[in-house]
């Protein structure tokens, strides 16, 4: 299995690459993900935080998550594509949106989370 994940935004301004974490991929139905993506959920792929290389153009929105800790959502300032999520709580991972992956066949969610918010 190839653990390298590459991807980027719709317009191509922001590109990233990194290596998959051992944490499972998942579909998140939390209210934050709904609002940040404009859909009912986010498809999330965890990467090892210190393996991530990402373009300098990425813009980050900081907010307080459901845990009460800070979370950070990265997006393209040009086309608005959601690209990353990270949190103080899980600092060893950075999460990328599966829709931004160059090869979406590498996405296979292991579980849904926050289903009660769906």
From TrEMBL:
Entry superkingdom: Bacteria
One Gene Ontology molecular-function label: metal ion binding
Entries under InterPro entries matching the protein: CENP-V/GFA, Mss4-like_sf
Keyword Lyase in annotation: yes
Domain CENP-V/GFA span(s) in chain numbering: 5-109
Keyword Metal-binding: yes
Keywords noted in UniProt: Lyase, Metal-binding, Zinc
Family as reported in the entry's similarity comment: Belongs to the Gfa family.
Protein name: Glutathione-dependent formaldehyde-activating enzyme
Protein's organism: Ruegeria meonggei
